[in-house]
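Standup notes
- DV: blocked on the single-chain target, sequence here:
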Amino acid sequence: MAKRRDNTWLVKWLKDPIGMGQTDPAGKELLAKFKNVPMPNPNLDDAKIAAVLAYIAQESAKAPVAVAEVKPLEGEHFEKAKGIYFNRCAGCHGTLRAGATGPAITPDRTKKIGTTALQTILTNGTPGGMPAWGREGVLTADEITLMATYVQMTPPDPPQLPLEKIKESWKLSVAPDKRPKKPETKKNWQNFFGVILRDAGKVARSSTATSRSCSPRSTPASRCTSSARPRRGGTSSPSVATARSR
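- DV (later): unblocked, structure below
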């Protein structure tokens, strides 16, 4: 890093990374690279900034560290890690870890990050939305070590669920021939939206009537505005409020 940016720029960056991300060309480029997630202000005084930069320069001068080989998980350890991944991680990172709402975490990336750094991320989360699985008590220290190893291995094939098996759990509420053939309300049904509680496998229920206004159809959903109006005697649903804030 010390070779890519001069010392003056690095000092400014550490003093005000958020401001630099908005005004400095290189700062804007970095912000875009990391999906517009700004670096938090470290709140360091001049002496601490100098110490940080001296440490970075010292470490940068060292020879690159070879990527350590990870001993693959086997047996019950592998099955446990696979289960944790599909239940906790696949929704954001994808079943094959190629990335979805979260970044790709395939071995070509995770091996470079290394086991120790992966354990830290799994424990403390990231500003970009990665949960602090360890700090929040969701995963134990042993499970975090397990997952830090698992994500450095080649992703296994996702569990198969054939259509015949899916149909076994279907619950038919309204037969096709009984379904409405035209709108049964004067409300703008094309403007309805639902909230799915993905991790719980449920559709959220709400006692609110929600209005939504957008720019032209091509406008991204993030530019739409929503307002919830509680029904008489009711309150806004936290689930709906969370969905609107996203």
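- Follow-up: Residues 206-246 have pLDDT under 50 and may be disordered.
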